Amino acid sequence: MKKINVLFNYFDIAKFNKNYKIMKIPEFNIVTYLKTLLISLIALVSPIYGLLLAVGAMIFLDTILGVTKAIKLGGWESVTSRKASVIISKFLLYQLTVLTFFIIDYNLINEFTKLHYQNNYLLTKLITLSLCFVEAKSIDENIKTIFGFSLWTNLKEVLMRTQEVKKTTKK
Predict the structure, then answer these.
(1) From CA 120, how far away is CA 97, in angstroms rounded?
(2) In this structure, what is the dihedral angle of CA atoms 88, 85, 147, 156, given to the nearest 10 degrees?
(3) I want to staple 74 with a disulfide (CB 3.0 to 4.6 A). Which of 13, 46, 78, 99 is the partner?
(4) 69: alpha, beta or left? (left if phi > 0; alpha if psi -120 to 50)
(5) 31 CB contacts (<8 Å, ≥6 apart)?
(6) Rounded to the nearest 10 degrees, what angle do helices 81-104 and 122-147 cross at?
């Protein structure tokens, strides 16, 4: 019991001692809390902001071409809010997928992949590449419907021509 009284006496003396400053706990402020949360989120995604932008740009381009395709095939009546709401869920799902794999990669896998490869966050980049490929395939289908040609087919033809030119220049 004596130790508790000594402890209370110490705090009573510290309150009245002008040379000793007691740290005050700041009051809770929602604006400060939200700013801190936003800064923490920006710091978290800063290593992969380019990947998130790439996935977002592919979704945006697919959306523009998808709406154009819907207007061409069915008119303005075929564009509905229900179909447009799928865009939001797809955007959030893809971004959260990249972010989730980044957290897994950062905390678990990155140290093992750095032993064999020089790239950081290899799993995150592979997931982003696969999501971008899915969107690129959808963009190609939309372009084929709208304009009547396929980007993949044209790309293959260009690559075949460059190989032929390369062979003829070696001879």
Answers:
(1) 18
(2) 40
(3) 78
(4) alpha
(5) none
(6) 160
Instruction: State percent of the chain over pLDDT 70.
Output: 84
Structure tokens at 44: 């978290």
| Confidence check: pLDDT of 7 > 70 | no
H-assigned helices in the chain: 2-16, 30-45, 49-74, 81-104, 110-116, 122-147, 151-170
- For 41-82, how does the pLDDT look when each residue is reduced to its tens digit (9 = 90+)? 999 899 999 999 999 999 999 999 999 998 888 888 878 888
Q: Mean of the pLDDT values across residues 132-147? A: 94
How far is residue 70's CA from residue 79's CA, in Å, rounded to a whole number? 7
Q: Which residue has the tokens 């564009």?
A: 79
CB 135, CB 62: distance < 8 Å:
yes
Q: Distance between CA 55 and CA 9 in Å, rounded?
A: 62
Is the pTM value of this prediction over 0.85? no
Longest dimension (CA), the chain: 100
CA atoms within 13 A on the CB side of 104: 11
* pLDDT score, position 133: 96
